[in-house]
Amino acid sequence: MPPPTPVPRAVVRSSVVPMSPTAPQDTTWLHSRAPLSGELIGTFPLTSEEGVSEVIDRARLAARWWADLGWSARRSRLLTAKRYLARHAEELVDLVHREMGKPRDDARLEVALSLEHLHWAAVHAERVLGEHRVPAGLLTINQRASLSYEPVGVVAVIGPWNYPVFTPIGSIAYALAAGNAVVFKPSEFATAIGDWLARAFNSASTEHPLVQTVIGAGNVGAALATGGVDLVSFTGSSATGRRILAACAPTMTPVVLECGGKDAVLVDDDADIDAAADAIVFGAFSNAGQTCVGVERVYAHRDIHDELVVAVAHRAQMLRPGTHGEADYGPMTLPQASATIRRHVADAIERGARPVLGGVESIDERTVEPIILTDVPEDSPAMTEETFGPTVAINSVRDLDEAVDRANASGYGLAASIFGRTIPRVEVAARRLRVGMVSINSWVMYAGVPSLPWGGVGESGIGRIHGADGLRAFTQPRSVVRQRFALPIALTSFERPAWAGKVVLAALRARHGGWRG
Ligand code: NAD
């Protein structure tokens, strides 16, 4: 085991925001419990607001040391952390399964993806961010221009519980590779996993912890975001994202916000129905539908709509939730999740939606059987709000164009998938989608390409993690020019000749506006 991460021992006294009513806390300790069995997974001391400041101070020392280490030493340390994660992957898988409830095999996929991202960030950081020359331009031909991307310093990473490994690593790995130190606030529903991850990263550094944790609910996250960090990278609901954006405004602390979604799958009339149904079922029901890019809406061409509904229902009816070995997906991680699902499903049915599989009766206090609805009114919460449960609405549309319009008629804009065999038509539709990520003839595959940026538009967030953009997100660009020789006429001097401005403008008008311009 790696050395334990130091955690402040004090108690949260004042709340910046109310604590989540469901957060498993007393006033001193956070007791993390398994969602269905209530098994105690771990007990952690809550971090006080003063404790948060102390952690940020320690992270600042770590940030200076880490930035000074240079590219190759950082790369080598991150690859050491990666090897630790790879070698102890099954331990982490087991912890994910027990603390947030997803089946072990889903946790395995999450850990596998995270390893790929950590590797990519470590190996590509210098190429993407290191100092490089850029063309100086005509007016400044005597200058040598260079650009580098400098670490911002201390990055606060605030994580959710639904992908408690993949999601924080998408920020932590890229922030560290860019030369920053990290203070990580794991979700109060995934604290043991967060603590494990921090220790895994710190196994690569005896001098300073690369990742320090602060423990608690939203109030601790708020104290962290406003505690003087240099950037906040948040993944969670859009409601919390808005709060963080507002809280960071007075100090102009930059934010990366990876928020909720209401993702759609568009199915054209010539699509491979089996492939589409398979992807819809996994996208809608895996992880109990608790996936930011989970499939919540399907817009199917009217000619194949009914066939698709049958194919999806046929597969979905065989799925079983629970924590036993045969379970296809786990229980709802949050105790209040069932109430939201019930509200969306009941409201949709009241307004005329047709249940194809399951219905309100499928919703237990903690486990929810698969629910498929069709003809769901587009203005119902089931179509406009994030449901975050194992439910999917499959509506019929005239053609792919209408499917795009309906998919775009959402405040969210995280990702979407399109199934169809006429690739030019599908690609036109993909370009029209108002989302950050698109999968054609598959679901979620962009997540497995570390060089692609991850993030959404609208209420799905601001900024990107992953890929080159995800590395740059944790930096500030620094532009440097160095004069190589003096020009005969110095334009930025009071000693320039009276005609200089006119001549320069005339030359550039000719260049940019043409001789008549
Ligand atoms: P959440 O917003 O309730 O909490 C996320 C984190 O923010 C937690 O650590 C929480 O303690 C903290 N927090 C709460 N209030 C805060 C405040 N005022 N200031 C600072 N931190 C605060 O979200 P959740 O329930 O943990 O996660 C589910 C949500 O996350 C869903 O909406 C899902 O779509 C979204 N999500 C998005 C992505 C993505 O990449 N876009 C990935 C995973 C999850």
Strand order of the largest sheet: 12-13-14-11-10-16-17
Q: Cα-atom Rg, whole angstroms? A: 26 Å
How far from one another are the termini?
A: 71 Å
Tell me what portion of residues adopts beta-strand conformation: 15-25%
pLDDT average, as an integer?
94
The helix content is: 25-40%
Number of strands: 20
User: Helix/strand-derived class?
Assistant: alpha/beta
Taking the sheet with the most strands, its summary is: 7 strands, mixed
Which regions are unreliable across 5 or more consecutive residues at pLDDT < 50? 1-24
Counted by DSSP, the helix tally is 16
Which molecules are bound besides the chains? nicotinamide-adenine-dinucleotide
Query: What is the 3D form?
Result: globular
Can you put this structure into words, describing what you see?
The chain is built from 16 helices and 20 strands. It is an alpha/beta fold and 517 residues long. Strand 3 and strand 4 form a beta hairpin. Helix 9 crosses helix 10. The longest helix has 26 residues. It is globular, with a radius of gyration of 26 Å. The N and C termini lie far apart (71 Å). 50% of the residues are buried. The N terminus is likely disordered. The site of nicotinamide-adenine-dinucleotide has 31 residues, from helix 7 and helix 8.
